[in-house]
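Model: You mentioned two targets. I'll fold them one after the other.
Researcher: Yes, keep them separate.
Model: Target one:
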Amino acid sequence: MRLCLYGFGAVGLYGVFVESWAWGLVYVAFLVLTVPVMLNLHCCRCPYPYEYETCIAMPDGLMRRLVRRKDGALGGWRLALFITLLAIALLFPQYWLWRNRSLFIAYWVLCAPTCVYFPFCLCRRCRYSNCPFHPGKYLRSAALKVPPS
């Protein structure tokens, strides 16, 4: 999974740099500034790096050394910021990749499995029940809204 995750990131960066060095530097700056924000917003709440010594995005043990564990749900503006940053990181290189169809295809061949794997495999087994993407969270809230028959 890390191969796909790092792979589509590298293809996206390369695709932007091939077309425009200036925009490539903007994208690198965005990613460099986004990583610590994502680690402190969302990743620090995941139990896996701290309790099980595994992490899907980083080498084992690195997350524990970078950020202290936080508890609780990610809500309000933090959730909006997390989703916005994630969407920008995924969608930013599309304009430049579209100009080079082979890079566009390579990006999505690596990105699509990652985007499918997270919600359908990882999220279903996740022990972080406060995660905004945890399916149990939506099942519980949906069950609460169903009127008794």
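Model: Target two:
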Amino acid sequence: MILLLDVLNIMNQKDLKGNPEIFSICFFTYSRTKKTGGEMIELKNAVKTGLPFSLKDSQMIGVKVPKSSHHPIAVNTRLITRFNGEKVVL
């Protein structure tokens, strides 16, 4: 098991070349405005990215798979269930 606080700290780390730390993450989707969610998403080889200012205050982070054509995904930190294969606990 790994604490959510430790997960967030690892996500903010950089490698020796200054690139974002690569990780695998599993989380559930949820949209309060659209009233949708509940889909489990697993991303391998993901990195943390920035989000628009409107999302930073609501415990959201952006994750993206490098070299993919997909846009960053907004993730609520409390909906992260696994990080690098370990169960995430609050």
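Researcher: Noted. Anything on target two?
Model: The helical segments are 4-11, 53-56.
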